[in-house]
Amino acid sequence: MTALGPLPEPEVLIKKVKVGGHDTHHGGAWKVAYADFVTAMMAFFLLMWLLGATNEDQRKGIADYFAPTVMESEKSGGSNGFMQGRSLEDPDGVAPHQRRAGMQPVAPYQAANGARAPARSDDGQLRKVESEIRKRLERDPGLKALVGQIRFSHTPEGLRIELVDKADYSMFGSGGTAMDPRARRLLAAVAETIDGLPNKIAIRGHTDAQPFSGATRGAAENNWTLSAGRAEATRAALAASGVPEERFSRLEGVADTEPFNPDNPFDPRNRRMSITLLRG
């Protein structure tokens, strides 16, 4: 108190300090990381589903589709970008002076009438052969029952067509080289499909481990001679259906040394014939 009256109340100032930048520092980074995680998990589950929903041949086809092809060129028609070195001027889209690294395409061959047949990729042509044989078997009521006994596999050597025995059906009589009529029709369908192709053919005969009755070591008749004889019978059936003799590259009899089912040497599926369309 003073003579003039009471003292005024002191003025209180409140200063609010706003700290900026803290929220923005952590704002969206976790969202990007989470989106990447979800995308990776989705791709993983799609891959697992694809592996479970396809067979061996389909997975091989998918792998071949995505396999990179390396091209070397003295005169590039582009770059590794959008067109990947392809030329807009050439009808086939390839740059001039091209050298292909890796697998070579099928060399053009001279047809019977002297015309030059177009060159095609080995892999693409062999897959067409497989598709056509499958269609022929499906269309033929007499052969449709044998669809489960023919197997296709694409190997570095070429397209392998295996005719496999079952417990209730054999292509040859027991211990002999006489071929069942349905097996001959099956080979005729194969021969018609590969007619006109330039690929050489290799044939390999396989048996199970069942020995000849009463056979002794070094006997004239054994699984080696049997598998070789059946390979020759297969070659003769293909030749009788129109395959030229010059297309046969080799015949082999390997007895029971390469079983289809290694866990059971007496499995009837070990008795089979392998016909391979060789690359190149």
From TrEMBL:
<keyword id="KW-0812">Transmembrane</keyword>
<dbReference type="InterPro" id="IPR036737">
    <property type="entry name" value="OmpA-like_sf"/>
</dbReference>
<dbReference type="InterPro" id="IPR025713">
    <property type="entry name" value="MotB-like_N_dom"/>
</dbReference>
<feature type="domain" description="OmpA-like">
    <location>
        <begin position="159"/>
        <end position="280"/>
    </location>
</feature>
<keyword id="KW-1003">Cell membrane</keyword>
<keyword id="KW-0472">Membrane</keyword>
<keyword id="KW-0282">Flagellum</keyword>
<keyword id="KW-0969">Cilium</keyword>
<dbReference type="Pfam" id="PF13677">
    <property type="entry name" value="MotB_plug"/>
</dbReference>
<keyword id="KW-1133">Transmembrane helix</keyword>
<keyword id="KW-0966">Cell projection</keyword>
<comment type="similarity">
    <text>Belongs to the MotB family.</text>
</comment>
<protein>
    <submittedName>
        <fullName>Flagellar motor protein</fullName>
    </submittedName>
</protein>
<feature type="region of interest" description="Disordered">
    <location>
        <begin position="76"/>
        <end position="99"/>
    </location>
</feature>
<feature type="transmembrane region" description="Helical">
    <location>
        <begin position="32"/>
        <end position="51"/>
    </location>
</feature>
<dbReference type="InterPro" id="IPR006665">
    <property type="entry name" value="OmpA-like"/>
</dbReference>
<dbReference type="Pfam" id="PF00691">
    <property type="entry name" value="OmpA"/>
</dbReference>
<dbReference type="GO" id="GO:0005886">
    <property type="term" value="C:plasma membrane"/>
</dbReference>
<dbReference type="InterPro" id="IPR050330">
    <property type="entry name" value="Bact_OuterMem_StrucFunc"/>
</dbReference>
